Amino acid sequence: MRTEDGAGPDLRHHGDAEVRDGGAELVDLAVNVRADTPPAWLRERIAGSLGSLAAYPDGRAARAAVAARHGLPVERVLLTAGAAEAFVLLARALKVRRPVVVHPQFTEPEAALRDAGHTVDRVLLREEDGFRLDAAAVPEDADLVVIGNPTNPTSVLHPAACVAALARPGRTLVVDEAFMDAVPGEREALADRTDVPGLVVLRSLTKTWGLAGLRIGYVLAAPETIADLERAQPLWPVSTPALAAAEACVGSQALAEAAHAAHRIAADRAHLVAGLREFAPDGLRVAEPAEGPFVLVRLPRAGAVRRHLRDLGYAVRRGDTFPGLGEEWLRLAVRDRATVNSFLQALDRAMTLAAR
Predict the structure, then answer these.
(1) Contact 91/305 with Cβ under 8 angstroms?
(2) Which residues form the Aminotransferase class I/classII large domain (predicted)?
């Protein structure tokens, strides 16, 4: 594990770029949105909100629903246009001197901080340590620390106690839990905690529910932090359909469905990992244990393999745009067993072609 300041990878590259211009011909293993979503009942709830579009959005009911879902007062909740907006608000609203981002992880937090004029330090987690967190590696004078849990793209689920140990008086600790609802039981979550000083938890509803095009997420933090972020928001930042989705996705029916989906994802991920292990003699290594709805792999000639996979009809996420990784890394979204089986056959072919 080492610390360094930024520069290098394209922080604005995301998985959607891998499927753009590929049309329906590409099987998508590049974007970490659950397949076959949003479900019909959620589409109906969203459609039912369209009759209210003439009125300005009123987020009070959705905000109260999110607060109730986590057992928190509404003053600790801020609804946002996806988790990405929350990163921009944090970068613009908080007065920090030394922000640190723990990588490899989702790159938007660092990009937002840099756009806001901050100089960002990086703590790079190492493959040989399993990309696990060592709280002692974070500089003591860091007054803003950002970490994902489970982390995109490594699929590492850090122990909640280890993440909470990053908290310090005078430090803002931002934990991106965008994929936590894909973890059975949401173990290691900090979203409901109010005893960790400076804690800010970000949640997204776009991944599990297939709402990336609608943009809905939320921030959980101390009331004074929420107030600072709210002042930095434009008026009516979350649309009426997105508010309807937020209220629906934190209801009892949705939570039960998400819990079921998390167990199914875990089983499908185990099937994917087992298949990937068969390529170990060819130099492929899986970053394990994987706990998110995606898997990180390292393999020879990964760039060529990715291009051959695309020719064979499969899109996967390149890894070299994540600080701390290089061209030999790929991220694979977890899909159902039939899709995985077909993908593994294509991977075998792609690796053969890349080796020629």
Answers:
(1) no
(2) 26-347
Contact 177, 190 (CB under 8 A): yes
Question: Right CATH number for 50-251 from 3.40.190.170, 3.40.640.10, 3.10.129.10, 3.40.50.2000?
Answer: 3.40.640.10
d(CA 302, CA 299): 6
pTM: 0.94
Question: Residue 117 and residue 129: Cα distance in Å, rounded?
Answer: 32
Give Dmax (Cα) for the chain.
61
**CB contact at 8 A, 35 and 219:** no
Residue carrying the six token digits 């030394």: 98
What number does CATH give the domain 2-36+255-355? 3.90.1150.10
Q: If we measure between CA atoms, which residue out of 260, 270, 320, 324 comes closest to residue 295? A: 270
Considering only CA atoms, which of 130, 146, 127 is closest in space to residue 138? 146
For 9-32, the pLDDT digits (tens) are 887 677 676 777 665 689 999 999
User: Which residues on adjacent β-strands are paired with residue 27?
Assistant: 314
Kind of pairing between the strands at 199-204 and 172-176? parallel
Residue 138 neighbours by CB under 8 Å, 6+ apart: 100, 102, 123, 145, 166
Euclidean distance between CA atoms 302 and 350, whole angstroms: 10
* Number of residues assigned to the chain: 356
